[in-house]
Specification:
Blueprint (H helix, E strand, L loop, with lengths): L9 H12 L11 E7 L4 E5 L12 H11 L5 E8 L9 H8 L5 E7 L2 E6 H4 L11
Parallel strand pairs: 3-4
Antiparallel strand pairs: 1-2, 1-3, 4-5
The structure holds tetrahydrodeoxyuridine.
Length: 136
């Protein structure tokens, strides 16, 4: 399902994600990813993928962005935009979907550039997620 709300400055989010993607530290995959998360308070935080020689220690762009936002005390989000060096739409990996789902539903914006993007909801990309309510 793809939908659009009209309140969010998708163009700004995508351009911030594209700028951040240039800082990708990805000497192993050579695959650059950039993300920009918009908070309900109206702030933007960016993140890129940071790889490691111990591959499993790498972090995705989406989790970099959320770590940046939470580190500034922000935990309420409207949307996250994701771009990559593939030039195509790049869906968030399963771990990132789970991490994002900790913070209620938000829009997931997959973009090639500021003019070409698709908007999904996190709930739609990760139905029936595990959360705090499941620990009883
Ligand atoms: N990557 C992301 O940053 N986000 C995703 O959603 C998919 C994968 C990164 C991790 C790794 O640095 C590279 O892309 C190849 O998997």
């Amino acid at each position: 399902m793809v939908y659009n709300y009209g309140m969010i400055d998708y163009k700004k989010m995508i351009n911030l994600a594209l700028a951040c993607m240039q800082h990708s530290y990805s000497p192993y995959s050579h695959f650059k990813v950039g993300a920009c998360i918009l908070t309900k308070s109206g702030n933007y935080y960016v993140g890129t993928n940071i790889e490691n020689a111990s591959y499993g220690a790498s972090i995705c762009a989406e989790r970099s962005a959320i770590a940046c936002a939470v580190s500034q005390g922000e935990t309420e989000f409207m949307a996250i935009a994701i771009v990559s060096s593939s030039g195509d739409f790049t869906p968030p990996c399963g771990i990132c979907r789970q991490v994002l789902s900790e913070f209620k539903d938000m829009e997931i914006v997959l973009a090639k550039d500021e003019k070409s993007f698709k908007v999904y909801s996190l709930k739609n990309l990760l139905p029936n997620n595990f959360d705090a309510g499941d620990m009883r």
